[in-house]
Structures are given as C-alpha cells and as structure tokens.
Design a protein that fits this description.
156 residues, 6-stranded antiparallel beta sheet, 4 helices, Beta-Lactamase, 25% strand
Length: 156
Amino acid sequence: MDKQNMETLAGRYERIIDQLAELFAKGGDATARMATAAAVLHHKLPHFFWTGFYRVMGDELVVAPYQGPVACAVLPKGEGVCWACVERKARIVVPNVHEFPGHIPCDSRSNSEVVVPVRDASGEIAGVLDVDSTEFSAFSEVDAAGLERIAAMIYG
C-alpha cells in the first residue's frame, strides 16, 4: 500500500473511531459495543469480508457479535490466528492465512486476516477483534493500529 492510500485509510479509521466514540457515549455494555463496532467497521471498510469478535470462555474462544458469513462458533484452545493473538497478547497481521500454522478455515474464501486483543477494564484479554478478507495481503499496520484503538473502546 502506498503512502497516499495509507493516509486515506488512517483518516477513515479516525472518522470511524470518532463515530464509535459518539455511539458508545450513549451507553451500552461490551456486547452492544461489539455489535456496533462490527457493523460500522464491516460496512465502512470494503476490504472486510468477515468482521467480529470472539470472547475468551475458559479454554475456548466463543463467537460474539459479527458481520459477514457464518462463523466458527467455537475455536479450540491453541489453534488458529485468534488463539495466537491471545497467547502472544499482541496483534497479528497475516497476509496469507493458508500459510499460517494451525489456521482454522471457517470460510474458504478468507485469504488474509488481522486480529487484535480486546482487554477488559482490568487489562486482561477478554477476547479478540478478528477481521478477514478475501484478498491476499489486504491488511496493513494501519488496519492493525486502527483496530487496536477500537478494541480498546469496547470495555472503556
């Protein structure tokens, strides 16, 4: 992605973050915020094919609000990009999911992915914000940084 496109994308994230801040100020719990964030992101960023959240529930990641095709309902511990994000406690940008060890193919049309941790009020990882694209190398560090800021708003 060239510098101009990165700046355009960064500006788009700024506008989305401002919109979500306004919507979140009206109230709502974490689930309502997840649903709102997933809907706004999915409809404002054309390279997003699946946009949603998974919550940590013991040894599983359980699907939470999302937009897009049907998701894997439960992700077993230690498998896939989402669990790698939880275990590393850091964002992950995967240009080609088919090359990621242990990738869980919830939809065969997904080719790249970005996942960021969602932390609760105490700073513990409560889940992840996961976005897939049908394009290879669809996500940049601009996406990862923007999504991290949005993830920080869920319990904020």
